[in-house]
Amino acid sequence: MSQTLRPLRLAPSILSADFAKLGEEVRAIEAAGADLVHFDVMDNHYVPNLTIGPLVCEAIRPHVSIPIDVHLMVEPVDAIIPLFAKAGANIITFHPEASKHVDRTLSMIRELGCKAGLVLNPATSIEWLDHVMDKLDIVLLMSVNPGFGGQKFIPSTLKKLQQVRARIDAHMAAGGQPIWLEVDGGVKADNIGDIVRAGADTCVAGSAVFGAPDAGGGYTGIMQTLRQNAAV
Q1: Mean of all residue pLDDT scores within the chain
Q2: Is 35 tagged catalytic?
Q3: What region, left, alpha or beta, does residue 199 occupy, with left being phi > 0 and alpha being psi -120 to 50 degrees?
Q4: Residues contacting 76, CB < 8 A, separation 6+
Q5: Cα(182)–Cα(198) distance, rounded to whole angstroms?
Q6: φ and ψ at 126, to 5 degrees?
């Protein structure tokens, strides 16, 4: 499928934002053309870092009209899902290793009115997808090992993207529901073209967006650059 038929969604990760002015930051990325707000939740248990919870999600919800894309890096995951659904999340993704019953967790997210998805770490097999394709709205491939922002993109993710894209396309061709394919970790202006050509339709960018210099047009400038480079 060509890029012209698969519009790109950009999801700046607030992990790289200035938390002292978070409301201003999320308003700025929406004004600059972001499609989603990516919200990284880490528990210092499943991953070696501690970030933000439902109260922060609830606090930023009134500041943006675009969807909030919550990536749960927590274990166990089921108890926290209803809290984020209530706090205004639109998309909730989780790692299969963090759930005792993946099918049930996906069903719970959808029953709470959110889009549901699985997150696969660099070394996690894509075979996790095979038995739950009918419950998925999104697949998120980690292109770094989760836990910290600002890491370098792992090149083997490109082949994995192609494999998951083939699975999604086959599923949809057989009459299945649409499934987004998202990538998170080390997405920059110089590699987004390769990432999109490999099959991604949704790209998380943290430091690439929030670290963009004002001299280069700030958030609007970097998001225009990312879109232009993705379309090449």
Answers
A1: 94
A2: no
A3: left
A4: 98, 99, 100
A5: 11
A6: -75, -5
Beta bridge pairs of residue 9: 202
Q: Is 40 annotated in the active site? A: yes
Q: CA-to-CA distance for 203 and 36, rounded, in angstroms?
A: 10
Single out the catalytic residue among 35, 43, 69, 184.
184
Tokens of 58: 């609830």
Tens digit of each residue's pLDDT (9 = 90 or more) over 209-220? 998 887 678 999
- Among the options 40, 43, 137, 201, which is catalytic? 40
How many alpha carbons lie under 13 Å from residue 175 in its C-beta half-sphere?
A: 0
The CATH topology of domain 3-230 is TIM Barrel (3.20.20)
- The span from the CA of 81 to the CA of 199, in Å, is 28
pLDDT at 232 over 70: no
Measured distance CA(227)–CA(148) in Å, rounded: 25
Q: Which positions ≥6 away from 153 have C-beta within 8 Å?
A: 143, 144, 185, 186, 187, 188, 191, 195
Region of residue 159 (phi > 0: left; psi between -120 and 50: alpha; otherwise: beta): alpha
